C-alpha cells in the first residue's frame, strides 16, 4: 500500500524537509502541502491523503482542532501532530482528540517515518515516544494532591471564588483557604494562575476530570 501524505505546517522549511525525507521512501508519496488550516481542508478534498502531518500552531487555528475537521472529510485519515516543543499537556490533548501520533519536531527521521507508517495502518491508535513517561508523570501527579484538594483545584479552574467554593463544598471559607495554601505549597506556586498552569502541565486537572 502506498501512503498518500499531506504535510500541513506554516513553516516552508518544515514542509520542504518532510518532502525531501519521503522522496526516498517508495511506500510514501507526497500528494499535497498546506500552510494553513483552510488550505489543508481544500487539499484534503483535492488529494484524498491517507495520512496528514500537522503542526500544532497554524496561522488560522490549532492543529489538533484541524485534525477533527480533516477527519470529517476522511474518517480514517491518519493524523501525526508535530509540535515545536515537548509538552505533556499537548500530548494528552492529542491523545484525547484521537490523533494517530504525537512527535516533537526534533524527532529523528526514522521516528517520523515510523509515525507516518503507523498512522497509515492504525489511524485511530495513538502512539508517541513520550507517552510512557507522560503517563508515569500523570500517575505520580494523581497522588500529589488529596481528592479534596483536587476538587478545590477544579473549582478554582472553573473560576469560582473562595467563598463560592466554600458554599459548594459546605465548609468554612477558612477551610478552603487552608486547602488552597496546601495546593500552592505542593505545586510550588504563589497564586491561582500559576497553580492552574502547573496543574495543567502535570495532568492534575485532566486526572480529576476523569475521576469526576
Overview of the molecule:
The chain is an alpha/beta fold. 57% of the residues lie in helices and 15% in strands. The strands form 2 sheets. The protein has a 5-stranded parallel β-sheet with strand order 2-1-3-6-7, sandwiched between helices. The chain has a two-stranded antiparallel sheet with strand order 4-5. A hairpin with a 2-residue loop joins strand 4 and strand 5. Helix 7 crosses helix 9. The longest helix has 15 residues. The C terminus is likely disordered.
Summarize the structure.
With 212 residues, this protein is α/β, with parallel strands linked by helices.
Order of helices and strands: EHEHEEEHEHEHHHHHHH
Could you name the ranges where pLDDT drops below 50 across 5 or more consecutive residues?
Answer: 207-212
What is the beta-strand fraction?
Answer: 15-25%
Q: What form results from the Cα inertia axes?
A: elongated
Q: How do the strands of the widest beta sheet line up side by side? A: 2-1-3-6-7
Rg result? 21 Å
Q: Which secondary-structure class do the elements indicate?
A: alpha/beta
> Main sheet?
5 strands, parallel
Task: Tell me, rounded to a whole number, the average pLDDT.
Answer: 90
Q: Work out the helix count.
A: 11
Number of strands: 7
Cα distance spanning the termini: 43 Å
Q: How much helix, percentage-wise, in residues?
A: 55-70%
Amino acid at each position: 500500500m502506498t501512503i498518500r501524505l499531506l504535510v500541513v505546517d506554516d513553516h516552508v522549511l518544515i514542509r520542504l524537509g518532510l518532502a525531501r525525507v519521503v522522496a526516498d521512501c517508495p511506500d510514501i508519496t507526497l500528494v499535497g502541502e498546506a500552510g494553513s488550516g483552510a488550505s489543508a481542508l481544500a487539499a484534503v478534498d483535492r488529494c484524498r491523503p491517507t495520512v496528514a502531518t500537522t503542526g500544532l500552531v497554524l496561522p488560522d487555528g490549532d492543529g489538533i482542532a484541524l485534525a477533527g475537521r480533516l477527519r470529517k472529510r476522511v474518517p480514517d485519515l491518519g493524523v501525526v501532530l508535530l509540535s515545536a516543543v515537548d509538552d505533556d499537556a499537548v500530548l494528552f490533548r492529542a491523545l484525547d482528540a484521537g490523533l494517530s501520533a504525537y512527535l516533537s519536531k526534533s524527532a529523528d527521521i526514522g521516528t517520523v517515518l515510523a509515525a507516518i507508517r503507523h498512522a497509515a495502518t492504525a489511524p485511530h491508535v495513538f502512539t508517541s515516544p513520550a507517552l510512557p513517561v507522560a503517563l508515569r508523570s500523570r500517575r505520580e501527579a494523581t497522588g500529589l494532591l488529596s481528592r479534596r484538594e483536587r476538587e478545590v483545584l477544579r473549582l478554582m479552574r472553573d473560576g469560582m471564588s473562595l467563598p463560592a467554593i466554600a458554599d459548594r463544598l459546605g465548609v468554612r471559607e477558612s477551610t478552603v483557604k487552608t486547602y488552597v495554601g496546601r495546593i500552592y505549597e505542593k505545586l510550588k506556586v504563589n497564586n491561582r494562575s500559576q497553580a492552574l498552569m502547573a496543574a495543567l502541565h502535570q495532568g492534575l486537572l485532566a486526572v480529576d476530570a476523569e475521576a469526576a
